[in-house]
Amino acid sequence: MPPPDPADAVRDHYDRISVFYRTFWGDHIHHGYWEEGEDVPARTAQERLVALLAERAGVPEGARVLDVGCGVGGSARWLAAHLECRVDGITLSPVQVDMATSGAQAEGVGDRVRFQVHDARDLDALGTDYDVVWTVECTEHLEDKATFVEAAARRLRPGGALALCAWLRGDGGVADGTAEGAASGGGLDAEGEALVASVCEGMLCPSLATAAEYEGWMRAAGFGDLRTWDLTPRVARTWDLCAAIARRPEVRAILAVSDGRARRFVGAFPAMQRAYADGAMRYGMLVGHLS
C-alpha cells in the first residue's frame, strides 16, 4: 500500500476548519503588517501586507496572476479590485473554492477572478502563462519547495514575477530589504529546533526553509533581481491577536467539541510566538523576476 499523500491531510484540514480559520484571520488567511507603534485592525494590516507585496513585486494593472494557495480568496479579490488583475486562484480545498467564489461575487469582482481545486505540486497542468505567480504562506505545506519554484518559473511569461511570503527557519538569516540577498547564519539550538517542530506539527508543515534556501532555488530556476525582506517585527503581532481570540469563551467552546486538528492548530500559537521572539523563525517576503 502506498504511503498516504500529505496533500490529503492538508485538504481535509482546510475543508474542516476553514470557517474556524476565518474566525481568526478573516478573509485573508495570512499575517498582517503593522508599522511600529500603530494600532490598526487586523484586516487593515492584512490588506497592507497584500498591498506591500504587490508594490514590491511591481504587479502591473491588468496583470494575469496565479494565486497559489489562494485560501478564501482575499488576495485575489484585492488584486482584482485595486489593480484590475485577472486572477486564477488554486487551493486543495473545495470548501475554500466555494467560500472564495461567493466572496468574489459579493464584492463585485467575480468577472475577474476564478477559483479551482488544484494541487500546487502540479502547476504544469494549468497550461496558462502568467505575469505573476503569487503565493502567500502556502509553500510551508510543500515538502519539495525547490520543485515548486521551478514549476512557478515555467508558468511565467518572460520578465514575470514570483511574489512570495513565507514562514522561514531563522538560521538562514534574512536581509533587511536594502540589499540583495540573505545573510548566512548558524544553525538553531535544540530549543529552536523544538519550536520549529512544534509549529510544523500544529500547522501541517512538512518543513520550513531558510531565506537563503529560497533564494538559491529562485536563482537556479532563472529568477534575477532577487529581493528579500525580513518582516518579522512588523507581522509578529498577528499571533498575539490570535492568542487573544483563542481565549474567548465562545472559541473555547468550539474547540472543546472540535477534532484534534483545530486543537493542534491553536495549541501551536505559543510556539509560533516564541519562535518569532527567539529568532527560531522569521517571516520573509521574497520577490524575483524571470530573467
From TrEMBL:
The protein's matches in CDD domains, at most eight in alphabetical order, are given as: AdoMet_MTases
Q: Where is this region: SAM motif I?
A: 65-74
Is Zinc-finger given among the entry's keywords?
Answer: no
List this protein's GO terms for biological process: methylation
Q: Which domain of life is it from?
A: Bacteria
MF annotations from Gene Ontology: methyltransferase activity
Keyword list, A-Z: Methyltransferase, S-adenosyl-L-methionine, Transferase
Question: What Pfam families would the database entry show?
Answer: CMAS
Q: Where is this region: SAM motif II?
A: 128-136
Q: Which family does it belong to?
A: Belongs to the class I-like SAM-binding methyltransferase superfamily. gTMT family.
What's this protein's name? Polyketide synthase methyltransferase domain-containing protein
Species of provenance: Rubrivirga marina
